[in-house]
Amino acid sequence: MLDFVSKLSAFVSIDVIDSHCQRLSGKLVDASSVEDIISVHRTFMDTLIRLCFVAEPHMLKGVTKLLSVCDMCASYTGRLAGILSTKSGQDAIDTAKRLTSDAQFLRTVQKFSNGFSSSMAQFIRVLTLFSQQQNYALLNILLV
After folding, report:
1. Which residues contact 41 (CB under 8 A, 6 or more apart)?
2. CA-to-CA distance for 140 and 41, rounded, in angstroms?
3. Residue 20 to residues 13, 15, 17, 31: CA-CA distances in angstroms?
4. What is the model's pTM?
């Protein structure tokens, strides 16, 4: 899950925003009027919205679902870390062993894993179709 979040963040930051900001800067230098600046900026924003999945409901839904599963898992593990942070030494080790061997804990972790895997498979299908339609290498999200 952390790998996905890191790759998504890198994709949006580097592949989309940074690369298109450089293009924007180059085009702004050539702008000769306020209308040119507005047009260049509008094109820039439209591109960012499209490539960051905001304009495509199926893509936005897929990313939102994946990030939601990641957030719920992080909250759950954060609560466990909070419990363990109140312990020290052997008591912390014993508590961690007891918590992680608990059947409820194992079911919860499996639920997060299954939810993420299912959402990721669905997202990959939508991502592949969108990438083909847009003629853009969006699969970098998964490969970088």
Report:
1. 24
2. 25
3. 10, 8, 5, 16
4. 0.76
